[in-house]
Amino acid sequence: MSCALVTGAAGGIGRATAVALAAQGWRVAVADLRSPGATAAAIRDAGGTALALAFDIRDAKATGAAYERIESELGPVGAVVANAGVADRLARAEKIDPEAWRAEMEVNLTGAFLSLQPALAGMKERGAGRVVAVSSIAATDGLAGQVAYSAAKAGLLGMVRTLALEMAPSGTTVNAVLPGMIATEKVEAMPDDIKARSRQRVPMRRFASPEEVASVIAFLCSDAASYVTGAWLPVDGGIGLSNLTMGREG
Prior knowledge:
The chain is of the alpha/beta class. Helix content is about 45%, strand content about 15%. It has nine helices and seven strands; from the N terminus they run βαβαβαβαβααβαααβ. Strands 3-2-1-4-5-6-7 form a seven-stranded parallel β-sheet, with helices on both faces. Strand 2, helix 2 (about 35-45) and strand 3 form a beta-alpha-beta unit.
């Protein structure tokens, strides 16, 4: 099995995904701007192979250099999980600063594309590959106060469909996963009243663990998903479903 690159892998969904792929037998390049070494060490401690890389996915030259190192030390990149993203700028659309808009787009959309683009030619040549973009239910349902994040994550869905068409003749699959409320470090740090209110909006009445999202991503990277491409898979506990009812509660 060739190697997999996972971006945003220092924690949360990215870390869980890197660990899950390593358990499948992938050699994993663990990428993040901050401290990817701990995830790589955890993989090695479990008997896997991992390479820690710190680079900015918005920088095409830095990304290209990272790919050169990955291919030199781990081999051809057979899977990319474009997971790195930010959601730090809360503002209603009429108030968002243009620079804040650009910053979210650069990481969540442009950076995601730049992080996977160098892998595409090799996947075509080898006749196999897996690409998974981590989008969000905000892409399809919207998220008040996060117009830039929602727009960028929706852009990933268009990118996935286009890449799926372009890459399909080579046997390379391209899919998106749309997480809902996930119990990442940032979510768990929210005030208790906000978390309780958020859970009530989820039909399953709980947040997902990062590992639950990672298992879906790992499936999409496996041979079992060889005929799945251009798909958008929500992992949201039903939060994207309408809860409108004309009947009685209960």
